[in-house]
């Protein structure tokens, strides 16, 4: 899942991005309101974490524009703010925010609130992905094949999640690198191919049979083939 974090405190941005990335999310960041609004309107996000007091354009205005647009009308938004007055919290919720968390906060609480919003969101994706005997629980971050537990690294789990969510769709190496590694793909690196090879080996340990297939000159696809 892809999140947008709009926060003008650089150290807070870095801390939250690292923690959310380790929790399995792909995170884009913006350090000012103008950039945050542009990203929120131009990109598809599963959830937006939004500070209220921002340089250029404040969080209230960003949310107002977002709710008026077709692309961001249903995107869950969680406000972060040092403004803890009841009137501020009510104002944020009335504008269309889904939650409001007052600074300072514990990262564990932020993560729990994000997961709660994603579970109940109107456009929520499935929590459990299944292809034949391969089963992946997104929230529990567990994967099994033929009921045998797969021991995946965080990156391998994210890679498998992407492939399974886009079942039957050929994903290019550049798109996989962008979604899983949050980086631009360099044709001179084989990071995607190496990761796919390791993931295939782990998936096929309990049960033989390929579910991830290479498509020559195009990329990779996850699907059951007869």
Automatic annotation (TrEMBL):
Positions carrying 4-aspartylphosphate: 51
GO molecular function: phosphorelay response regulator activity; transcription cis-regulatory region binding
Keywords attached to this entry: Cadmium, DNA-binding, Phosphoprotein, Transcription, Transcription regulation, Two-component regulatory system
Domain OmpR/PhoB-type: 126-224
Coiled-coil blocks: none
GO biological process: regulation of DNA-templated transcription
Superkingdom assignment: Bacteria
PANTHER family cross-referenced by the UniProt entry: REGULATOR OF RPOS, TRANSCRIPTIONAL REGULATORY PROTEIN CUSR-RELATED
Protein name: Heavy metal response regulator transcription factor
Origin species: Undibacterium luofuense
